Input
Amino acid sequence: MSDPQDDRLAREVYSARAQFQALLDAAVDAIVLIDRDGLIVGFNHSAERLFGYTSSEVMDRNVRMLMPEPYRAEHDSYIQRYRRTREPRIIGVGREVTARRKDGTCFPIDLSVGEIADDTGPARFVGILRDLTERKAAEHEMVEQRERLAHLTRLGTIGEMTTAIAHEINQPLTAISSYAQACERMLRAGTSDDAELADTLGKIGVQARRAGEVIRHLRRLVKQRDSETEVTDVNELIRDLLHLAQVDSRAQGLVIRADLAERLPPIEVDPIQIQQVVLNLIRNAVDAMGEWRADDTIVVTSGLTADDCVEIGVVDSGPGIPAHVVERQFEPFLTTKPEGLGVGVSICRSIVESHGGRLAFEKNEPAGTVARFVLPALPAGAGHTS
Output
């Protein structure tokens, strides 16, 4: 005959387990419980929907079945290391990892792991998992939209510079034509010598390279491409862009001067997008100084901030940012230009922030505006640039 006290205890244990399972199943997030050896001892309804397994299919099996490589091969060693050292690596810290469904597809999740202390037996672990597939897809779509808008903005910028660019290319083409005609006349008249011809042909080559440089910069900026980061020398990035920026400034009677610090640490960026930011800031300075200017020079600077970030600045001596624009300068479609769209500065900030940086404007003394943006430098040991 059974002991009533034992029956009551059994009912209480059963009730507690049922309540616990009900709590697990009511959770929106997937919850997986494992024992000290990594075997699954709990698997709620959300986990079933997430992974495509039923609870009975995973019970008492190693949790690594829910992981792709290399996590699958390394998981047991993680548990053994924790049991040996009691030093947590992921316990109590959420992180993004990749999980594997029953059908073999892999997907991103946010994983939080906690330890369940139990005085009556070995410790167990609980994992709370959240599917990040939709969030990652939305982030990817947002990045693609930003890149498409950045590309359209680059095309718009080049379109605004068409007259100056056409003039810049027409000059070397005209010179090439004149030198070629001179060579032809000398050859027909029989009055030339090899040295004179070589000198004239050399001048043709110089002018062809001059036109080619402008076209090369244009092609880089207008090409539709996926964003790609690379380790970059910020000073070389600026120098490379100034060839094109000066095309526009010369047409306005302005001079662009570079004041670049030496031995700056490298940065890892999409160079075309960062050049787009610098070009946009320079063109804003050119436009501002077309209204009024204290002098004819725009200065592009580089340097290192106190917190070891690389800083790029564009300094003009125009009338400065109007007071009514200061607080709203990053709003899309806000512009002081009669024919501007008002998306350039907003796109610039978006590009800079996507690289982990920040963009700001401040008053220049005695006149004008300083546009500065900072970008994270690579850590010490990654090399220096000059």
